[in-house]
Amino acid sequence: MNFVYKTENRCQVHCKAILSGACGRMGTKILAAAAQTDDIRIVAAIGRSGSDCIGKELAGGIVVQDALVPSLAGDEILIEFSTPQATMDHLKIAVASRIPVLIGTTGLSAAQTALISQAAQSIPVLVSHNYGIGMNAFWEILKVATRYLGHDYDIEVIEFHANNKPDVPSGTGGTIARIIAEERGDALEDVIRYGRDKNTANTRKPKEIGMHSLRAGSYRSDHTVIFAGNGERLEFTHREEDSSIIARGVLWGLRFLNGRAPGLYSMGDVLKYVPGTN
Description:
By secondary structure, this protein is of the alpha/beta class. It folds into two domains: 4-127 and 243-273, 3-Layer(aba) Sandwich (Rossmann fold); 133-240, Dihydrodipicolinate Reductase, domain 2. 33% of the residues lie in helices and 27% in strands. The chain has a seven-stranded parallel β-sheet with strand order 5-4-3-6-7-8-14, with helices on both faces. Strands 10-11-9-12-13 form a five-stranded mixed β-sheet. Strands 1-2 form a two-stranded antiparallel sheet. Strand 7 (101-103), helix 3 (110-119) and strand 8 (124-127) form a beta-alpha-beta unit.
């Protein structure tokens, strides 16, 4: 049951959330960000089965569990920043319990993405590869640039992450390429090219979108999109210095999902909800 309380003469809905992936980098940031709010409370935490964090007590007296067990009231929102398989397992439980799900897990397969769409017919589901408000504004800017330049300019996408990031390309990099392709009316798989190999002919094909993945050092992430024409080049870059910006976007996602009807939602929907972004 959701309840309403007053703070600073405003009524706000109190969001209770279960955090899956609580001991990971993003889970830690989300816990810290939620603790700074007066309208969001993390009520349960889940870690990877067999990991050292199981049984660990987090701030607020929350003990990390290795299984998802929604309350009988079913009034929580599930936050998923775990593995693709764990996300799928938890999604089934969320559908059975009729609780909303916010998914930030990356590396999902096409089949797993289809299962998420299917689940969204029964419960509200918010999915994004990047919950940063700035990144989502960046995507909107790229849509406009593609409308003006996308058919006449060569396009290259460069995503740069720390040396311990395993998936290539990054979820955000893949989203950028997909946004550009869809804005032009192309299927991504028909136009994407991952890197360039000296043993392969490198003549650029019409409409090709080059995707390059860099992994080095400890820096959080950069994403650059190059539109190169005859005699000029435009570059759009988003630099993420601290993943706490992702956590703040997740909190806005929770507020958006609370009380929402079943459906598949994106951060584009959340941007329309966040004060001052529309």
